Amino acid sequence: MKVLVLPLFQMPSGHHQAADAMIEVMSSFHDDDITFKKVDFLSYCHPPLERKVSGFYLHWITENPKTYSRFYKLFMFSRDHDHDFVQSLFFWNRYFEWRMEQFILEEDPDLIICTHCYPSKLLDSLKQRMKLSRPVINVYTDFFINDIWGKKAIDYHLAPNQQAKEQLMAEFQVPQERIFVTGIPTFPVYHAHQAAPLPEKNYILIAGGNSGLGNMFPFLKEITEKGNSTFTYKVLCGKNRKLYNKISELQNPDIIPLSYIDSPEKMNDLYNGALAILTKPGGITISEALSKALPIFVLHSLPGQEEINKRYLLNKGLIFELDLKKNIEGQFTQILFDSKKLADLKSRIELWNSEKDASLSEALLSIIHGERAYLPSISPV
After folding, report:
1. Diacylglycerol glucosyltransferase N-terminal domain spans which residues (predicted)?
2. Which of 212, 236, 247, 283 has its CA 20 to 30 A from that of 82?
């Protein structure tokens, strides 16, 4: 069985992390008959276009977040807007559908997994037009489902929560047995039983360095100048060398910059030693932190999906939003030194986790075993 996994863009993202997590889970089945291939579809179609689009996106969300936020709501929730811009994309959709059809013919997969909404949209259209019969799985990487994701003809859905499952059933008539509430996929190591004693929790982890820390750096500079930090901070700078250098120049032993970490095992160790995490409300990082039952603080969110994620998480009581107008370390201590607030948070996380009706491995095994029975009768496309 050949499994084709489709994120979008080359840059590091939650879509790639989810794709890698899916591959790692399937690899754990120790089934020599299952092979995997991860492909960025946009780079397959046109590498220079992928570089331009991803560069433009990063520049846009950084330099003009308000206009990107408006664009996201217009484009990603297009059912709510009969807009000329949305209609003008029809030609490009048809072009990429044609390229996707050729791509699937070349790859000849038995199962296709989408961790980004655009490949899902293209495959859904091909299936509705009877140009594709291979089974497709949607793997959602946010806490909501936007309108770009294909839904009507997609075979399986790994939903982030019960709310998303109910939406798929009510609005798109997706059969209940085709939906698995697994949560957003993360690496198995974050869910593994910890045999050795956990290390003493003695720092706050700060994540989000790849896209900058927004208004967080002035706070780090301020506590350095005051010299009376209540906590130690470990800052994940990702591939943002400029940020790493700026923090290093502070020469504050209580603020430790960390370069890009690509090992889930090393990240798991960092989570295990953290009192809490300060991050942006991206689906993958939040899901990892929730799997470790960490208190989560957010200071700002990127425009678009992170704004919507933040509303969902605040409504569920799963994160704490910091107020820049108040003392930030004081806000940390109000939560982290209050045993009742921590116990209440733990209860809310446990309640939220109880919404899941299958683990990632259980869902994938069920799908793979079910589809294998039909493999001999699957047509070439």
Report:
1. 15-185
2. 283
How far is 30 from 91, CA to CA, in rounded Å?
43
- Where do the DSSP E strands lie in 131-228? 136-139, 156-159, 179-181, 203-206
Q: Both tokens of residue 62?
A: 């950084």
Q: Are 293 and 316 in contact (CB under 8 A)?
A: no
Q: What are the pLDDT digits (tens) for 268-286? A: 999 999 999 999 999 999 9
- Burial class for 224, CB neighbours closer than 10 Å (0-12, 13-18, 19+): middle
| Length of the chain measured in residues | 381
CATH architecture assigned to 2-183+356-377: 3-Layer(aba) Sandwich (3.40)
CA-CA distance, 27 to 40, in Å (whole number)?
A: 20
**Structural domain spans, the chain:** 2-183+356-377, 189-353
Give the max Cα distance, the chain.
70
Q: How confident is the model at residue 194 (pLDDT cuts 50, 70, 90)?
A: low
DSSP H helical ranges for 227-263:
241-250
Cα(154)–Cα(150) distance, rounded to whole angstroms? 6
Residue with tokens 């001999």: 376
Alpha helices in the chain (DSSP H): 14-27, 41-45, 47-63, 65-76, 84-88, 90-107, 117-128, 162-172, 216-226, 241-250, 264-272, 283-291, 305-316, 328-336, 339-353, 360-372
In the predicted structure, residue 374 carries a pLDDT above the cut 60 = no
Q: Counting runs of H as helices and runs of E as strands, what totals does the chain give? A: 16, 12
Question: Locate tokens 């678009």: which residue?
Answer: 304
Which phi and psi angles does 7 have, rounded to 5°? -85, -160
- Residue whose entry in the numeric block shows the structure tokens 């953290």: 274
CATH of range 189-353; options 1.20.950.20, 3.40.50.2000, 3.30.200.20, 3.40.50.2020: 3.40.50.2000
User: Which of 317, 322, 127 minimizes the C-alpha distance to 206?
Assistant: 322
Identical fold for domains 2-183+356-377 and 189-353, yes or no, is yes
Task: Give the integer Cα–Cα distance in Å for 285 and 283.
Answer: 6
- Cα 74–77–78 angle (5° rounding)? 70
Q: What is the mean pLDDT of residues 351-375?
A: 85
d(C-alpha 209, C-alpha 211), whole Å:
5
